[in-house]
Amino acid sequence: MGEAITYELLHVDKNSGARRGVIHTPHGDVQTPIFMPVGTQATVKAMTPEELKEMVEAQIILGNTYHLFLRPGHKIVEKAGGLHKFMNWDRPILTDSGGFQVFSLGKLRTITEEGVEFRSYIDGSKNYLSPEKSIEVQQSLGSDIMMAFDECCPYPSTYDYTKKSMERTTRWAKRCKEAWTNKETQGLFGIIQGGFYKDLRDISLEQLIALDFPGYAIGGISVGEPKETFLDILQYTTPKMPENKPRYLMGVGTPDYLIEAALAGIDMCDCVLPTRIARHGTAMTHNGKLVVRNATYAEDFTPLDPECDCYTCKNYTRAYIRHLLNVNEILGMRLLSIHNLRFLTKLMDRVRIEIENDNLLNFRDEFYKKYGYEK
Amino acid sequence: MGEAITYELLHVDKNSGARRGVIHTPHGDVQTPIFMPVGTQATVKAMTPEELKEMVEAQIILGNTYHLFLRPGHKIVEKAGGLHKFMNWDRPILTDSGGFQVFSLGKLRTITEEGVEFRSYIDGSKNYLSPEKSIEVQQSLGSDIMMAFDECCPYPSTYDYTKKSMERTTRWAKRCKEAWTNKETQGLFGIIQGGFYKDLRDISLEQLIALDFPGYAIGGISVGEPKETFLDILQYTTPKMPENKPRYLMGVGTPDYLIEAALAGIDMCDCVLPTRIARHGTAMTHNGKLVVRNATYAEDFTPLDPECDCYTCKNYTRAYIRHLLNVNEILGMRLLSIHNLRFLTKLMDRVRIEIENDNLLNFRDEFYKKYGYEK
After folding, report:
1. Between B8 and which of A256, B22, B43, B207 could a Cys-Cys bridge form, CB atoms 3.0 to 4.6 Å apart?
2. Does the beta-carbon distance from A331 to B46 stay under 8 Å?
3. Among this protein's residues, is A365 annotated catalytic?
4. Contact B250, B268 (CB under 8 A)
5. Spatial contact of B292 and B282, defined as CB atoms under 8 Å apart
6. pLDDT tens digits for chain B (375 residues)?
7. What are A201-210's pLDDT values in tens digits?
């Protein structure tokens, strides 16, 4: 029997490192490069699965090990028949390992070589995640792609701290691989760490590639550093990742970062940004960010983004959406979530076409101009 | 040119006062008896228009003059092309007059013969509603059915207070009728008051019928009184309402009250109850109320209501919905809102069939038994 996750390279942009490919998963194919909406707690916030398929055209979504471990508990999801069945989503799911979330807990957690003990933010109860436990949880969830339990350094971190953390990430990656039993139904990706130190990135790459995971992610960038620092590490690391396996950049969701990731040769990105800013009243548009909550739009009877053909833009005005947000109506958050997610999936549709035409660099420049980004 | 609102009587149940009819409106026909979902702030909470049509099969919804007058302001809705266009709903809309809401403000409002001065609950600003102003606002909104600006007595109220209030309601109804100019595009219903005093109900009926409105509502019951008191006034008042016009019972939305209203000869009811309890985690089912938020349902992988065929019951389990509510996910409120609204519209589909078969009384008895109500 074959591996759960395989990658097929279709085309490389002649003028950049951008790759057009397909990831084959047990729940269907994913055309790459791709943006993946985040469904932290077994739901992409405010959305139904049908909306994700029909309005957003999402090919794959994320679930969150840390959150689902605490609530409802992975055993309940397992009893339900796995995360796909529990949440009524039949396309691929990627689960993160919970590492990023437990490390973000600060004083509420204690890290040892064995794993991380932490207090639940819900009821203060003591909990424990380790490489083995994370894989156990992710196997209960039954995601198509599991992530290795890693340690993500904050920005900035010293060389010594970053090195120790990267080395531990490698040791934990090995333990994750050993704990992984569902090889034919679930893939497992290693996460390259090493912060903003290129020699540490090299060591991490070498050690993790030696472990031969079905796919690799870059962790520990897009964590608050300046854009040039981000690009430097992205462009340094990505080309060194295996060509025959999916390359995933974690936590990226702004239009410019998504395009830069694709240019560098990344296949997959995810971020809570589009749905989070939606719930707070901001739309992504072809002319930049639009804070539709602002009073300016009270009598603006045009769509959020005149160039967009999403459900929201076809049927509702800025004035209406602004009113809904202003009076805290759920529909306002729904309409903006649909729009922002569709904006990004459509952007990636375009990115894939531009790669096929060896034109992603030119497209980036035009898009930056229009969207008002500095390169 | 004809009147905006007309009523066609199709059949009267031989064993009760229940009527099967059709209300013709500028935005289409409404099969009665009907339950109308409430869209207070230009949205039925958590729902899109398509969901209301396709999942709930709602024929008509409500809008709220008081809320829309304050936010976004009726002039903005008018500029948008009216409430239908503003909220993207092309079926009939009924707007209440704002009377019930301003009277509920207690100390924040002052009633005079001229109208009601009140403080906005949003910013404390002074505002004013009167019969003329309420009609002006409702004409800006462009609803198919407007309601006269009335005074709704709290329960209990003294005979004297109720009498004075009822008499003022009549004078205000007359002023509303005089202010009403869009006769061919919008109907206007009078509201029968008189509290729990039958002789006052008789006077209110007589005076309002003399004003010849296109439809009539019963106000001031289902305001906290015991069920037998409710039924007493309902069954006393309804048969005295004009036979050739729609009869609307305001603020009723529990299954038993809806059936009792239909039995008495009521055509239309509305209530925020199904969507409100949905957002707090309670489902209406064929076996009574189900507080799905409870821990009992953590591992219950059956639908909310096994007899229901709604989107929610076809696709999701109690365990999943319970999880969503437990972690405050919008989708949980959405799924319960869809279910509860569909539960009531489907109940009314059934009520209409039972009337056609002269069987509503028997159905009521069976339903009460199953649902666990006392008659």
Report:
1. B22
2. yes
3. no
4. no
5. yes
6. 589 999 999 999 999 999 999 999 999 999 999 999 999 999 999 999 999 999 999 999 999 999 999 999 999 999 999 999 999 999 999 999 999 998 888 888 999 999 999 998 888 899 999 999 999 999 999 999 999 999 989 999 999 999 999 999 999 999 999 999 999 999 999 999 999 999 999 999 999 999 999 999 999 999 999 999 999 999 999 999 999 999 999 999 999 999 999 999 999 999 999 999 999 999 999 889 999 999 999 999 999 999 999 999 999 999 999 999 999 999 999 999 999 999 999 999 999 999 999 999 999 999 999 887 776
7. 999 999 999 9
Say which of A48, A320, A327 has its CB closest to residue B86: A320
With residue A178 as reference, give the H or E element that holds it: helix A159-179
Backbone angles phi, psi at B240, to 5 degrees: -85, -5
- pLDDT tens-digit readout, B10-42: 999 999 999 999 999 999 999 999 999 999 999
Q: Which of A67, A315, A330 is closest, CB to CB, to B46?
A: A330
Question: Does the global pTM surpass 0.90?
Answer: yes
The kind and range of the H/E element at A285 are strand A282-285
Tokens of B280: 């707090």
A109-111 and A187-192 strand pairing: unpaired
Most B CBs within 10 Å, among A40, A45, A48, to test the B interface: A48
Residues from chain A contacting residue B300 (CB–CB below 8 Å): none
B319 and A80: CB-CB below 8 Å? yes
Burial class (CB in 10 A: 0-12, 13-18, 19+), A305: buried
Contact B72 A333 (CB under 8 A): no
Helix ranges, B265-317 (H): 273-279, 311-315
Which of chain B's residues have a Cβ under 8 Å away from the Cβ of A315?
88
* Residue whose structure tokens are 């489907």: B346
The dihedral formed by the CA atoms of B18, B21, B23 and B27, expressed in degrees to the nearest 10:
120
Question: Residue B196 corresponds to which tokens in the numbers above?
Answer: 């729990």
Which residue among B80, B323, B333 sits closest to A72, beta carbon to beta carbon?
B323
- Those residues of chain A that have pLDDT short of 70 are 1, 375
Q: Find the chain B residues whose C-beta atoms sit closer than 8 A to any C-beta of A.
A: 41-43, 45-48, 67, 71-72, 76, 79-80, 86-88, 298-299, 301, 315-317, 319-320, 322-324, 326-327, 329-331, 333-334
Please enumerate residues of A whose Cβ is less than 8 A from a Cβ of B. 41-43, 45-48, 67, 71-72, 76, 79-80, 86-88, 298-299, 301, 315-317, 319-320, 322-324, 326-327, 329-331, 333-334
ipTM above 0.90, yes or no: yes
pLDDT of residue B375: 65
CA pair distance A43, B319, nearest whole angstrom: 14
